């Protein structure tokens, strides 16, 4: 890789970057105790990115003996693309880094016998099936990865880092008469090995979490359509922070988003602060450096109601005159790095848990989501898989088939209270042309009527 970087410099490239990966990847899917997918592969390859005449050229290859050729191809691509650009790409300055980032685990998933992995999934399926006789179908998915990444750039950066992932995901459906329900749960770690599934995301924990939600929905009352005051729990707050607001703050998307031109303006109720942080120990999304070699950092996106920051890579940092925040991430060597979130969340407030519910004659308490989507105009829709009515300030009956929607930038101004209690981050995956593992969360939050719209069949 270092020799290939030198070849790019000899050609006259303004910047040359090579990201190498070597590792083990595994995926298993079990449907009702039947293994329907089991793949293992060893991947090895290099991503080559060259900046020449103000344009990018990108090539990925598994042929480690032809990296010079890959660099030459990427250089030619950049030169060919340069005349079509309105303005040349410039990168922010970066101090060269030489470092080795290690992840020490008890059990590397590549060395765990396949029989043990299948047994883990069987045990979870049996826990779920045994929870309620109305559960009709159980799918369990497990992914793992381990290996190493290498970064060499013409700026002099040389970084070696460990890759680690364990991920568990059950999807469950239930039926009673003509009523159907479905629920899912997801846990992941990028800092622990298979032991994470043995002492935290156990078959019992995962199975009972998802089966409990199916049972709640089968016994729930139908939702009322309209807008009501509500209290939103950490997993749903995290989804809003990520899907409906975080993407608006990714600098490459901000120009087309509802946050465009609002830097320094009030965008939320007083006391609302939202963060994206790549440095929280143990969180999915946390690394010491991003895939451009920029040290990761804590970015205050919203600080006490004001829009104060954006997520950047080196290109957009230079373009907008902002710091490089360490948010450049690539799914693998097959992709160039783009701006992605890490851990995105709202900060705690000063309300007690009981105060959040006081004075609500009727509303909803939303604790967990099934899935969601958002647009660049900040509109969002999220399916809720665990929710309860709030009646006279008390948590009431469970609700089935609830969905929430709204315009997130408007919803921010309807936040009335934020819990002072801490919260647990949820792990998930984000798509933006590439997959990235992320975490999100936030304290319990109370919204005024008009902040969120409720409907059915979420």
What key phrases describe this protein's structure?
10 helices, PmbA/TldD fold, nine-stranded mixed sheet, 25 strands, 2 domains, 458 residues, alpha+beta, eight-stranded mixed sheet
How many domains would you count in the coordinates? Answer: 2
Mean pLDDT: 97
Biggest sheet architecture: 9 strands, mixed
Q: Name the poorly predicted regions.
A: none
Measured between the Cα atoms of the first and last residue, the distance is: 49 Å
Helix content: 10-25%
Large-scale geometry: globular
Strand element count? 25
Give the helices and strands, then pairings.
Blueprint: H1 2-11, E1 15-31, E2 34-52, E3 55-61, H2 67-81, E4 98-101, H3 114-131, E5 135-153, E6 158-176, E7 179-184, E8 187-189, H4 195-199, H5 203-218, E9 226-227, E10 230-232, H6 234-246, H7 251-254, E11 274-277, E12 298-303, E13 306-307, H8 314-320, E14 328-329, E15 338-339, E16 343-346, H9 353-357, E17 362-374, E18 379-391, E19 394-399, E20 402-407, H10 408-411, E21 415-418, E22 426-431, E23 435-441, E24 445-447, E25 453-456
Parallel strand pairs: 4-6, 10-17, 16-23
Antiparallel strand pairs: 1-2, 1-5, 2-3, 5-6, 6-7, 6-8, 9-25, 10-24, 11-12, 11-16, 12-13, 14-15, 17-18, 18-19, 18-20, 20-25, 21-24, 22-23
